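Let's do one together. I've listed all components of the complex below, 385 residues spread over two lines.
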Amino acid sequence: MTCKQVESLLARAGDGTLDRARQEQLDTHLATCAACREALECQTKMWEVLSRRPSAPVPLGFSTRVMASLESGESSWMDALDWRAWTFRLTPVAATLLITAFLGLGRGSNPEPVGAIDFSSLVVAWVVPESETALDGVTVLSTDDETDAFLRDILRVFDTAAVR
Amino acid sequence: MNFATPLNAITAVGTEDPDSRVDPDFIAVNEARTGNGDAFEALVLRYQGKIVNYASAMTRNASDAEDVAQETFVRAYRSLHQFRGDSSFKTWLYRIATNVARTHRRLRAGQSRLVEQSLDDDTQALRADDVPSGEASVETVGILRDAINSALAMLPDELRVAVILRDVEGLDYKEIARVTSSPIGTVESRIFRARRALRPLLRPHMSAPSEKEVDDDVQTS
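Okay, and this is what the predicted structure of the assembly comes out as:
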């Protein structure tokens, strides 16, 4: 066997899980290879060090928080990264933008550019409908609690990132 | 909490292996699928120690570790209907945790605009005099754990996952192959290379006393 072929045997020999047949093959090689004997010693010592690593303690109330999170059904940080959730949940916003653009085009002689709407204001109007923010040419078609909560989460993530 | 999982999907779990029918994990999974929150909480309690510890080794940070561990259980709960019982629940959970930890790592790297700390910085953090060699205390235990975590963080992702699962978590090679969807030979090679790469970083700790036993004592006291 070559030194390269012995590598996988050394990993198992280092943690004591090599079967008898392959141990004999390894021993034959080690008898004539000082480099692999040293590599085996490294494997054994590293396994000893890593297997002694103190376990991280479980935070107090961890399971309670997990179950509370499941009960509430609130969005997690990974949900915010899910592009499918983004595209699906932002569909109403996209639809609003499209309708707005369409209405703008329909004015004909209006010289105001179609893209003059401030998107951040549009999002604020969506998330906080009670603010009654006046936006020319913008009609909020509908809202629901889930979409509101999701958009609030997004704004919170942006705020957090901006603070950092 | 309630799952609208069809009954045939539930009964399919654990039918491939006769022994799995009495596996407490499979029983709990089946009950959790029918909306039994207590059954899933039992699974959380059973594996929270392993997953938190694994997340700790993968993230280096206690707060991040809790985020990853909690997200792992949330993902597992939402995906219970996808668990077919081809592998053990533990293996399946570790696979989810691995994916969550990788995503979290990428997110952190993007947020901080720091891809990796320099080798010099981390090697500096692993000086022998950072780890007192005398009486072990809670602080000493934490320092040793942090030192090992820092060294592990220096490894490429594939090597880090393999060596953590084997040497820190104690999974066997077959289980690691399932978690990482890799051939066993690949797993063996990755572990060999990971240990070889860690040696210069962890050399100061090779002769340290058994801190794990001390840690266990601290946690139980």
